[in-house]
Amino acid sequence: MSDQIRCPMCGKPNPADAEVCRYCHARLKPIQPGDLPQPKPTGALEAMLPPWIRELRAESEMEEETLPLPGEKTEADGSEGAFPEGESASPEPDADDPLAALWAEEEEDEDLPDWLKSLGTEEEASAVAALAEEQAAPSAGEPPEAAEPKGAAEEEESALPDWLAGEQSAAEAEEAVLPDWLAEGVVAEPAGEPAEAAAPKGAAEEEENALPDGSVGAYQPPLVEAPSESLSASPFVESEELAEALLGETPDWLQMLAPEEESASGEKSPAEEEVAQPLTEGELPSWLEALRPVAAATSVLATDEEEPVETQGPLAGLRGVIAPPTLTTLRPGKVGVLGGKLKLSDEEERQARILQDLIAESSRPLPPSSLPDKKEQKVLRWSVGLLMLLAAFLPFFLPFLRAPLPRRVLPAAIAAQRLIDDVPQGAPVLVAVDYSPAFSAEMEAAAAPLVTDLLAKHARIVAVSTQPTGPDLISHFFAALGSDYRESEHYLNLGYLSGGTAGLYAFARHPRLVFGYAAGHDRIWNTSFLSTIHTAADFSLVLVITEDPETARAWVEQVRPALGEHTPLLMVISTQAEPLVEPYYETASQQVGGIVTGIVGGLAYEAIRGRPLTAAAQAQWGAYSNIALMGLMIIAGAGLVNLVLGWRERRNAPTLPQDEDLDDEEA
Amino acid sequence: MKAPVATAVAMAVGIVVLVGYFIPLSIFTGLRMLLLQWAIILAGAALFVGMVNLSQHHWARIRARRGVGSAWLVFSLWATFFITFYFAPASLPTRWLFDAILLPASVALLGVLAVSLTVAAVRLPRRRPGLFTILFLTTTVLILLGSIGIPGVGSLPFVSNLLRPWLAQVPAAAGARGILLGVALGTVATGLRILLGSDRPYSE
After folding, report:
1. pLDDT value of residue B117
2. Which of A407, A595, B104, B125 lies at a CB distance of 3.0 to 4.6 Å from A643, suitable for a disulfide?
């Protein structure tokens, strides 16, 4: 991975020699202060130039064709000695020599017209000045005397290459041909004045004086010392006297705007002093430093010396620009007020207030009125329970409150009655007592008429259960039918069938393998109940009594296929299982031959048989109906009141952000 | 190494039982019945293992002096076990335990459930007033109204003969059939996942 570098902006890997990121096009190699732009071929951009520039370029090329080449010795251009002897006119740029790049750039600029060249002279002069200053800057080991501006200026002057000396002589020659009115304006440096005195009163100060006060404070370009006297003769760097000479008398309004104390005292303003000081790498000017919003947060951050220096990207060389995400630099405590006052419009302030109100509203706790307290819940539970008990026992004392018996005709119950009638006398019948003890009241009431009919036919009833409490449940069921029915005489209790659906599947096909033993019986398969049974299909009828839809489904899926066509499957189910079991009866194949559903189904079966209901059955039906009616009235009445109250509370409750909105905010 | 062996055994057993359904060869059917017998015995033994596990859990609570109920539970559990084991499941002492303790307690809990459901139905519109709440409560009222006999009136003709059967056999049965189909598809998918070894509920 050493041949790759990561983009400081997007973090993706790039080749080590890439200058810009191939993903986000951010610069990978930072531009250090002092770097010079490298010449790039711009031939492909020629076609994009507007026609007037191309015409100007063509004219300048025609003019240059008539002029001598830079390498030729002419007396007019004054460029004699610009190239050392023995070198060609277009030397190859040397990598070690920074001036070589300038040479190459100048060759590139040969194609430019004169007026564009004159525009570039100031930038070139600044670049050359910076380079000269770098060369003249004292090294770390040198004494401070060596960095005296005057000495540096002299050294620079003496160290100028020949071509720059030629430029200087050309400037002097131009000055010589200036008209008188213009020559007077040109400020010639006094012979004995040191270079450091000329440098502060250079271009920056002159421009400051020429600008209004406000503009001076807004922008103060960082300047470097003028490298030589020849460069100070640029047409854009003139003295105050020259400006006055050129522009004439300053108008009154401009004089009023000019800084009087500066002109009067001659002292340097702080901005001017700052301009006079050269900037080093990674240092921001004060006016830019003042704009940084992190200034007020420095109280909670570490000092500048502790903060890292950016090494990549456009912020390279700056210190403490991006706070490092380490806890060591953060100190607990109150965050200081950020510096700088935001200038907000009225609309922005109004929106900010709305946002503040929303935040304050969301953190406000909900009113607890929507949640009933425990006392209210307890009163409600006791009230409902007492009302239901009252509804159950009241018909015993008030006969007019007894509910009439249902007169519904249920097709599934009629089918069940036919299946019971089809059972031959003394035939083996399998009865699955597969309900939980809690539902014993409903299940026994529903299944009792059917089992009684089977017992009346002397059917050899074999009882089994997939419930762990099955053996006792079977005994309880037959005991509830009457004391006349005894185990091993009227029915056989096989007990608990373990294994769930697997046990049912195995029992339906090989019951002798599953049940080799039954409680209280040594050889159950030799008894009259099971002597003829080898599979479940040998039973004449399979009756399943259950309240659980899953249990009913297990019997239908695991046992019904093994029964064949001659052994029907009949079910007695609870009311709660009716919707899930009814589809097995209503299909064309009728996997379930008949269904008796709950107390109503048992009563309907009795009504089909034409038998008079017992007093216990009537009391059971009355209690069931009255409790259900009481529950119905409670749900309808109190539910309606609560519905209105709930709507009112929701309408008056403060609106809260929905869960989706909260998720979005968290995301 | 434990999980791959368990996975291979489970897949092999499942495939053998499944093949026995479709190919009526005696070797497959015999092997299938043998495996099913093992499953039945293991399921019965699992109940005993569950008893021991439950006792261990509550015994730890007893030693930590954190529950009188745990002590009562452990005592009742093992007393019932030994009584049933000694006297046989359908004997008189076992019948007494069932008739006098288990059955009344179960029925009482179901009665309390009826009261709790009624209270919940009363509180529901206040907590969540909305269209589905109204629909739920309306359906409940109509089903109850069609299932009972009102004193002095009897069964309501339209509600008990038409509306209540329609609700139970059309919308409710339609939903129930959808559930059954979903259960069947889920069972097939679960079986395939176990047969292919992608689902290993038996491995740790």
Report:
1. 92
2. B125
